């Protein structure tokens, strides 16, 4: 067994939910959802290195030019907001893999290069967990000269870490049901072009769900399901047919908690976006536009007005 400077790197994407319906709260506190996940070209990178020490150390940096780097430049975000202890999802993911390789000696260093806004509704922590699962699995397999965990085993570990982690591991586009962890791939006819706009402060996912339940107190909430034609429009690459079908049940909750998002959504409509929506539990906003040059154009204009904005492809 060799442990000299063994390093493995892996990436996992952030996501938007092109559609997100949540049912009523279940007795266990979770919500059943119907989610159309779509990965974006903003990715998290985790580099795992075996160390001579013990335990898991974490370093965090911002990817240059990313939304996170823009937020730091504007003074609205600091990297020390990312936990580096056992509550970091990448650390939890690494531990889950290491339990399967008890013979592995020494410690681990995890370098997390963040591009996805923290607490932004884009599954950044989940992407770190997915990238850590992949990187640490490869590293442990090399160090132990043993076969690594297979895709099925990694997906099982992912589901145990959080509802969005399995999707971050698979990427592409997928329909998520149950808590979101039960996945079925969705066909994509042509990549979508989005402009992502990050907010000056994050939103907590549990707070967004609590607000959703509060707003719907007197409503009879139906079981969540995808609308007719949604998957077909995505599979056909028919952006204009897709746009009116996009919906996010968490958007009214995010707007209730962060009314400053209203003008951010309105700016997309005013600029001729096909659709503008809050990503997941927010507060990141996504504007769907016709093509890559429209995305670059809108992102540049929004940056000119002082907003952290980035043109991305999805998936
Ligand atoms: P969701 O997957 O629910 O949409 P999100 O994208 O809104 O989540 P994350 O960036 O994943 O939010 O982080 C939410 C919280 O999780 C953070 O405020 C932070 O305290 C904690 N956290 C744990 N691990 C990480 C990580 N690797 N990166 C960022 N935040 C993390």
The biggest sheet, with number of strands, parallel, antiparallel or mixed sense and barrel status, is: 7 strands, mixed
Find the CATH topology of the largest domain: Ribosomal Protein S5, domain 2
Number of discrete helical segments: 11
Task: Tell me, rounded to a whole number, the average pLDDT.
Answer: 96
Report the bound ligands by name, code or SMILES: adenosine-5'-triphosphate
Structural class, from helix and strand content? alpha+beta
Secondary structure elements and pairings:
Layout: E1 7-25, E2 31-51, E3 56-62, H1 67-73, H2 89-98, E4 107-114, H3 124-144, H4 151-161, H5 165-170, E5 173-177, E6 182-185, E7 192-197, H6 205-215, H7 230-236, H8 239-242, E8 247-248, H9 250-257, H10 261-270, E9 275-278, E10 285-289, H11 292-304, E11 309-314
Parallel strand pairs: 1-8, 3-4
Antiparallel strand pairs: 1-2, 2-4, 2-5, 5-6, 7-10, 7-11, 9-10
The structure holds adenosine-5'-triphosphate (ATP).
In short:
The protein has 315 residues and is α+β, with helices and mostly antiparallel strands.
Please explain how this structure is put together.
- It is a single chain.
- The protein is an alpha+beta fold and 315 residues long.
- 34% of the residues lie in helices and 28% in strands.
- The longest helix is centred in the middle third of the chain and has 21 residues.
- The radius of gyration is 20 Å and the shape is globular.
- The mean pLDDT is 96.
